[in-house]
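Appendix B. Raw example, untouched.
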Amino acid sequence: MDSSLPQTRAARQALNRGPLVEPAVLAADLAAIAVAAGKTGEARAEVVQVLKRRLAEARRIAEERLIATSDGRGCAEALSHFQDEVIRALSGWIMDQLYPSENPSSGERMAIVATGGYGRGMLAPGSDIDLLFLLPYKQTAWGESVAEAMLYCLWDMGLKVGHATRSVDECIRQARTDFTIRTALLEARYILGDAQLFGELEKRFDAEVVRDTVPEFVAAKLAERDERHRKTGQSRYLVEPNVKDGKGGLRDLHTLFWIARYAYRVKTDEELAKKGVFTRREAQMFRRCETFLWTVRCHLHFLTGRSEERLSFDLQRELAPRLGYRGHNGLVDVERFMKHYFLIAKDVGDLTAILCAELEERHEKPAPVLDRFIARLRPKSRRGFKESPDFQIDHDRITVADDQAFARDPVNLIRMFWLADRYNLAFHPDAIRLLTRSLKLVDDKLRNDPAANQLFLSILTSANTPEIVLRRMNEAGLLGRFVPDFGRVVAMMQFNMYHHYTVDEHLLRCIGILQQIERGGDPGLGLAADLVKTIQPRNRDLLYVALFLHDIAKGRPEDHSTAGAKIARKLCPRFGLNALETETVAWLVEQHLVMSTIAQSRDLAERKTIETFANVVQSLERMKLMLILTTADIMAVGPGVWNGWKSQLLRTLYYETEPVVTGGFSEVNRSRRVEIAQEEFRRAVPERLPALSGDALETYIGRHYAAYWLKVDLATKIEHARFLKQAEDEGRSLATRIELVPGQGVIHLTVLAPDHPRLLSIIAGACAATGANIVGAQIYTTTDGLALDTISITRAFDRDEDEERRAGRIADAIEKALRGEMKVGEAVAAVAKKSPARHRSRTFRIAPDVAINNTWSTRYTVIEVSGLDRPGLLHDLTSALSRHSLNIASAYVATFGERAVDVFYVTDLMGAKIQSAQRQTAIRKVLTGVLEEEAGR
């Protein structure tokens, strides 16, 4: 953080002390506005204008203080205090000028109460205001008029106001049955009016609602939290987190405090320490987390001018310098900011776990187990373990026998997690607290202790719950201490749109995915689930180690794969691996991107492609390990990244390479595999497509080249055959087919058209013109001159019927473009100007790269283009290639977040490679210009 800002809490509080606008000023402003006869509307409008000006002034001052102090909690408290004064001044003016009551009856009593978030006494710049107009028993004409006048004034000021008008009896009755109302009243705060009435509400709420209902309230709030997490993303390490509702965000702190306030009847976080729920240090942690999250949230609202809660990439880039972060130690400012954010989110999770454990002690919620989906035998003793007398079981949670357990034997720091995994036990908060205080015991002696490393390796390769236990070790701060190289990537975000999680979270998710692959049973796991059963037993453990280490060198100046291999060669002997095992792990780490890259961006029907990959893997066993690791790595990137298309590409690469590494490449082997694929197709056709038979079937088989039979899965081949036969029966040489793929986040759109050099460019342009984002493409040509191109497009709607209508519009646009009824270039340019994706050019910086290679293929020149993705990019690239008289034989389109990587296999119009250095330079120049076009705009 910027050292010029106030560093101490006292200094920040001093700067924030004092109202944003003096209450006397507000009162004087409104007192000067008298209501002339018949001029009520004009007076009210004048009041609104005065208050709007004061509100703008208050927010300006609040923002200036926030930038100077980074004290979001103080900013939220000041804004709430100002809002109180607005309501007091406005209420006073309404009751004096509009609806005076000289001799109020017993029914003309009212208390104005802040509820919900506003009731906590903290208000973000764009937050709603929740008000309760509290009445003694029923609404009166006077009370209705006052409430209505106040609400209209607040609304006219541009404020979002939630409101309710209820008697005390109504509040109690509704709070008993509605947990939302109960939670809002839990934080009710008196602003003005009849204080005795508010006191009655508080007293009755405690006696008639809260008493004896703690368990049901806790259960309801935790269920509500879980559902919120499900909607916003289950991980607190999502790289575009929701500051309010995301896991580890402000709402989690609020839920924690609601539960604590309800169960322990406290009003401040300091009182939780006095009650013994939190230690003094934990109470300070609560305050620190709350202040940081409020700081981020208030900045978000000020920066965007609205109630924005999602910390998107573009806002992260703007917020980091605004909060005082600077690049340091290999991390840019935004990465340092987000690392701090994720560490805070982790602390929020720790505090929630501590409170839940305390509630379990009180039997206010069910005690957990480490994993509810596995059943483990408990130790026969309910008190101790035969493996170690230093640990005991307390209500199905592991805890220490005494506070010297770790000091007596530092290996116990690791042993506790090993026991928890072995017996499926949750952790007692006292044990976690003692462990946190004992982290200084983790030194080089412990790191190199054979027993500690053996226990750690057992946890990492466990068949039980390795991901869960490792995550708990990470959250407790032990994992990064015991493996310092892992500690460097804790809470480290990768500032790109491809990776959904922080580096450490991705590595731990990889461990969980590998365990899923081992358990099998899910066809979506692809070939990996079959191969994992065939690898050598010891290599199974090496896979876990390699996945744990494969991205451990992220954030370093050198290539992370190369640096990761060096770290593996250092750590593996420490973990107890021998020289051969160490080299296998290091090789997997160093080469962990190779299979994915080749599968997605190379022609797998090319002999050169397969030979190149075979030279990398060299053995069947290594290739099996690489495919399993690649599958887990892709699946752990985030939802929707892994799909059936990628699974099929990996499968094809594996089976194409298998004969090379087992007995040498031969065209005979390849021809035999083509025959096997064709025979499989023949056997499937009678049942799935009986209309295709006899000579027609053999003619159809002859229409496809060998590459098609080897690269396309059987189900897709059948659908292609049905599609082509229908088009032929209808006499059409131009047709489209739509396929919605469940669970993949994409749709597949297949186009049948006469082949010509600009075909892919026109298809890509039509897609861009309709706002469709192409994330993959597979191009095949039939022997009779037709192109069968399948493009994968990102879904836009959750409901299939909505997506089908959208896909239909895209397909219509493609057919119109191919018939010449659409000016594709103009349509693409118009859409690109309006596309929200253009903000990427301001948020992300990717240096354009164009590689032209004549050694990757025996027949084609391979052009690999990498740069910032944008609408119409594929159209522009393919158009540029066509203008340079290049014929695109095949194309491989991949999108990794904001980065597009497109590979084209091309020849000149005579079918020859591009050998001329001068012509290669011209192609490279024009493609680089296309990539830089958006920056030029």
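End of appendix B.
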